[in-house]
Design goal:
By secondary structure, the chain is α/β, with parallel strands linked by helices. The protein has 21 helices and 14 strands. The protein folds into 2 domains: 35-153 and 267-335 and 347-417, Periplasmic binding protein-like II (D-Maltodextrin-Binding Protein, domain 2); 156-263, Periplasmic binding protein-like II (D-Maltodextrin-Binding Protein, domain 2, 3-Layer(aba) Sandwich), CATH 3.40.190. The strands form 4 sheets. A 5-stranded mixed sheet has the order 2-1-3-10-4, sandwiched between helices. It has a 5-stranded mixed sheet with strand order 7-6-8-5-9, sandwiched between helices. A two-stranded antiparallel ribbon has the order 11-12. The chain starts with 33 loop residues before the first helix and ends in a 6-residue tail after the last helix.
Length: 439
């Protein structure tokens, strides 16, 4: 079968600002050889040999339901929440559905966006808000995008430097006091202008009376470069996904001021994203890819599998971080680096009986309201109509039901974040304009 991957000239469409310090390569001197020692990782042939022929025939969806192409390149950024993409490949779930998923490690979210838009990636582990930014042409070429399903909830954090702690800033309230009384330029980093980390950081700062644009400076840095940049004093704080918050504690250069699940319990985070063009041209391939990732999501959410999953994604090919840095928070074991430890029930989840994966229209609407709040949208739009263009609810529901995965009765819902403000997607414009602090 032909490959979907097309070699195109590299392009820059609204690139991120340059980063002063390049990523530090973490050489791991001791690595458990997961493939040899655990005996759990099966080859694709072994996986298929264990599937009964009748089931195998249905899984491969022969005839007119067969994938139009079998080779797909799926991007990812080195973050813990890339796990379902990686494990779909490593455990052979892709082969079960007649696919060969090649995970492609990318350098930045800008690279992911550009390669998706240009067709160099067929799909990707991607920031929720990035998909909406590309769809609307915010800072890039406009392209009709498709969110196929959610990949994870929770599992990000805001890290502050030890230097801030030394001056008494250990949470939002004390940070506000320091910014007001000790006047200087404070710098905070996030990973992409329309991304989830930007929105969590802005929301958290704003809820504590700090304007993320006028009271402090905010910059964009790719996730794996956060720790290196904090180490040399290039920022006072950052918002990023794991394991880089845990890594800052491991390296004794920062601490966790808040987790994102404390900002919004079970918030949407990364998604399986592609272009609308891909879904229309290769509908069976799209469904097969979704099924493989859903199987991987279920596998990861079986807690007894998480130590082994952490070991796999810790490798240099994927996240490239010490095993304990990934495994701890994957298991819900949190240490904030400032004397507090706890078992977090709202740890990173990949399936949760399908709640993680259903692409609620209301989640898309929430991100759009924050674009409006922070000036990325210059005027109100039909928020729900845009969400219905991007979030592939009907397609996801079809795939989920075929796999016996529960599908909610409503495709929208209200939410309440940590500041007590209620988000009602039916009142999106009023919500977007209702915040005291905005652009």
């Amino acid at each position: 079968m032909e490959s979907l991957k097309t070699v195109l000239p590299s392009a820059t469409l609204g690139n991120e600002p340059s980063v002063v310090v390049q990523t530090e390569v973490v050489e791991q001197t001791s690595r458990r050889d997961f493939m040899k020692q655990t005996g759990v990782m099966l080859s694709a042939a072994a996986v298929m040999s264990m599937v009964p022929m009748g089931t195998r025939a249905a899984a491969w969806a022969g005839g007119s339901d067969a994938p139009e192409v079998s080779n797909v390149t799926v991007g990812f950024i080195p973050l813990t929440d890339c796990a379902s993409i990686v494990m779909a490949h490593e455990l052979g779930f892709d082969k079960k559905y007649g696919l060969n998923i090649t995970p492609s490690k990318e350098a930045s979210w800008a690279a992911v966006r550009d390669k998706l838009v240009l067709g160099e990636l067929d799909a990707s582990h991607v920031l929720y808000g990035l998909m909406y930014g590309a769809h609307l042409g915010i800072g890039s070429q406009k392209k009709d995008m498709a969110i196929l399903m959610g990949l994870n909830h929770n599992g990000q954090a805001i890290t502050l430097s030890n230097a801030l702690r030394d001056k008494g800033a250990v949470n939002g309230e004390t940070l506000k006091k320091l910014v007001d009384t000790d006047k200087r330029e404070y710098t905070f980093a996030q990973t992409f202008p329309t991304g989830t980390h930007a929105m969590w950081l802005y929301y958290w700062l704003g809820a504590h009376g700090i304007n993320p644009f006028s009271d402090v400076k905010n910059i964009v840095i790719p996730p794996p470069q956060m720790v290196a940049n904090m180490r040399v004093g290039n920022m006072d704080g950052f918002c990023v996904g794991e394991p880089w918050n845990a890594r800052a504690i491991y390296d004794k250069i920062g601490f966790t001021a808040t987790t994102t699940q404390a900002i919004w319990k079970d918030h949407p985070e990364k998604v399986l994203g592609t272009t609308k063009e891909f879904t229309e041209k290769y509908p069976n391939t799209t469904r097969a890819m979704m099924r493989a990732v859903l199987d991987a999501s279920k596998h990861i959410d079986t807690m007894s599998n998480r130590a082994k999953v952490s070991d796999v994604i810790a490798s240099k090919s994927y996240v490239n971080a010490p095993d304990p840095v990934i495994e701890g928070r994957m298991l819900g074991n949190y240490d904030d680096g400032n004397g507090k430890t706890w078992k977090d029930p709202d740890y990173m989840k990949f399936y949760n009986d399908g709640q993680v994966n259903f692409p609620y229209y209301s989640h898309g609407v929430w991100f759009l309201t924050q674009f409006r709040r922070w000036g990325l949208l210059k005027q109100d739009i039909d928020y729900l109509a845009v969400a219905k263009q991007v979030n592939q609810v009907a397609l996801y529901s079809e795939v989920a039901k075929s796999m016996g995965i529960p599908v909610p009765s409503s495709d929208t819902k209200t939410e309440k974040l940590f500041d007590g403000v209620i988000f009602d997607p039916a009142k999106a414009a009023a919500y977007a304009s209702g915040f005291k602090i905005h652009a």
